[in-house]
Automatic annotation (TrEMBL):
S-adenosyl-L-methionine binds at residues 119-125, 143, 170, 188. InterPro entries: Methyltr_RsmF_N, MeTrfase_RsmB-F_NOP2_cat, MeTrfase_RsmB-F_NOP2_dom, RCMT, SAM-dependent_MTases_sf. Belongs to the class I-like SAM-binding methyltransferase superfamily. RsmB/NOP family. Residues 27-315 form the SAM-dependent MTase RsmB/NOP-type domain. Keywords: Cytoplasm, Methyltransferase, RNA-binding, S-adenosyl-L-methionine, Transferase. It comes from the Bacteria. PROSITE patterns: SAM_MT_RSMB_NOP. This is RNA methylase, NOL1/NOP2/sun family. It comes from Desulfurispirillum indicum (strain ATCC BAA-1389 / DSM 22839 / S5). It holds the Pfam family Methyltr_RsmF_N. The keyword Cytoplasm applies.
Length: 316
């Protein structure tokens, strides 16, 4: 395989220190290939059988995903058929990468709970939370950027997620406003979006730089602390990003451990697919707490984007 690529050389260099050598070639290749397209049936609007029958009538051939009953994969070439379907425009399916389903499944909210989604737009994970909760309980979905907030609001209405209450506000203020209030908290943090880089789409990577990573980390830390403050003792939280950068991932969880000490329990992650590696315990000469190894990175493959996941519990 040729290692020439239009992606920033410094990004690829960093990647060699994050991804084990045995995985590197596969990970590198994914930036230059097209992934399959995946979707989730919105069980608030349709049964899985009805949605599949509707798509089959459009000659869309959806294959099941073994670890998520509502998730299906279609070949890359059928993406536009899916995105122009009535099933999508009328809220019966949501097009979403499989990796984006993992944090919500991990958080595993139950009907009746109080849930916070602290960085919510456009709402893919909020809608999934509401479906798992069967529209029973309460979800606060917070978004700070106005046009993204209105997209979130429109999606919540279109997909029938009636337990979702949307708030246009800075997530950094929520911890103080609602201390120890939520049973479960999701923070899908704004990030450098390295997992979205694709060789065919220079806009995805052309503004990348180590300074952007530092800028993302500066936003993430107060959001993470706010999310933590808003979590009830005994409650659980998922912190995730679609960046490979340890500065946005392990270093953030390490900062939480440093501030809140033994109140933070990092739960071991068991994911139902093989393309994952443990969190790093050192990066660029810095050592992290060995418990960071319990967090995980999903490595990209033909089906999944990369994602970093940390599952945390507030010790009562
Ligand atoms: C990774 S995206 C969330 C994607 C979303 N969870 C989904 O699955 O559709 C991060 C979001 O955080 C928002 N954001 C950035 N800073 C924020 C802040 N201080 N408070 C709340 N939201 C913020 C961004 O505008 C962006 O919409």
């Amino acid at each position: 395989m040729s290692y020439s690529s239009p992606l920033p050389a410094e990004f690829l260099q960093r990647l060699t220190a994050i991804v084990p050598p045995s995985w590197y070639e596969q990970v590198f290749a994914t930036f230059h290939q097209h992934r399959t397209c995946s979707f989730r049936v919105n069980t608030l609007r349709s049964s899985t059988a009805d949605a599949l029958a509707e798509l089959s009538a459009l000659d869309i051939s959806a294959s099941p995903v073994p670890w998520c009953a509502e998730a299906f994969v279609v070949p890359h070439g059928q993406r536009s058929l899916l995105s122009t379907s009535a099933a999508f425009s009328e809220g019966r399916i949501y097009i979403q990468n499989l990796s984006s389903m993992a944090p919500v499944l991990l958080l595993n909210p139950r009907p009746g709970e109080q849930v916070l989604d602290l960085a919510a737009a456009p709402g893919g994970k909020t809608l999934h939370l509401a479906a798992l909760m069967e529209n029973r309980g309460w979800i606060s979905a917070v978004e700070a950027v106005k046009d993204r907030f209105f997209r979130l609001k429109a999606n919540v209405e279109a997909f029938g997620a009636s337990i979702v209450h949307t708030y246009l506000r800075d997530g950094r203020t929520v911890g103080l406003a609602c201390p120890e209030h939520f049973d479960r908290v999701l923070l899908d943090a704004p990030c450098s979006s390295e997992a979205r880089f694709h060789a065919d789409n220079p806009a995805s990577w052309q503004f990348w730089s180590p300074a952007k990573i530092r800028e993302a980390a500066r936003k993430q830390k107060p959001l993470l602390f706010s999310a933590w403050q808003s979590l009830k003792p005994g409650g659980t939280m998922v912190y995730c990003t679609c960046s490979f950068a340890p500065e946005e991932n392990e270093a953030m969880v390490a900062a939480l451990l440093k501030k809140y000490g033994d109140a933070v329990d990092i739960l071991p992650l068991e994911l139902p697919f093989a393309n994952t590696i443990p969190g790093l315990t050192h990066w660029l000469g810095k050592e992290f707490d060995p418990r960071l190894e319990r967090t995980r990175r999903i490595l990209p493959d033909a089906f999944m984007d990369s994602f970093y996941l940390a599952h945390l519990r507030k010790v009562p």
